[in-house]
């Protein structure tokens, strides 16, 4: 475990790793909505893309489930600590009993996985957001009993936006607990328009994150819950680099005044992973949101992620203090490491 460090040496923290929980799939197997999800995937991705995805899952199974393999890969990439969350298949259609089973199964699996290397791994769970009262209870259990650092959520809840007032009790509970809410899309609501050439992921995932963040900002969620800790996957999608259009709408149109301040103000109250691929894109992200709001993110172990996240941060040519914050300081503060 060559990457692990001790004492006062700075630690490199990757905030975007994934764990596969096969038992969750078995619990959902046979449910009509599980079959409907599979049918929707066939519309949103070409047959070739689905074949590639299925082969990838089989190939990555050790990395998605085995602690020792994960640690070896972290060492190879120069990462000391990884935040591990479930694959973002939240099944927000599940009825209360099944939803509770799925949530507890996934969260227990994440906690158990991370407990095998507590100095290297910290966990994020899932929530049954479709049942807000149950979600609040499970959030408290995940943080207080299982020791998870927060939860991963998708970009909408079976068609309801994250900014819907139904979810305010969940965001309030997360703020009070100091729990991080990691926004990570699964698929794209644009469906068949992005079916060819893997556009459902390449374009669709950043679009979904952009939409979710825009709803949260324009919908006043960050006004109502100023202490909420939001972390956005994939550099926040397209929002940080085109926030000027949002500011213009807010200034010119009364129907875009759902938030108290200009939308760009809220960008600096959200955290982002640095998974934007190029030095130029990372510099643009830092300029838009601040170097205290960005952290290494690998999307481990998937092919749309990177295996050299720390090296890419260093390649951006930021000053030494900003580089150190992005490599580990920001994540350590956000997650209380």
TrEMBL record:
One of its GO terms (molecular function) is carboxy-lyase activity. Pfam families: Amidohydro_2. GO terms for biological process: secondary metabolic process. Residues 13-337 form the Amidohydrolase-related domain. Keywords: Lyase. GO terms for cellular component: cytoplasm. The keyword Lyase applies. PANTHER family: 2-AMINO-3-CARBOXYLMUCONATE-6-SEMIALDEHYDE DECARBOXYLASE (PTHR21240), ISO-OROTATE DECARBOXYLASE (EUROFUNG) (PTHR21240:SF28). This is Amidohydrolase. It comes from Actinospica durhamensis.
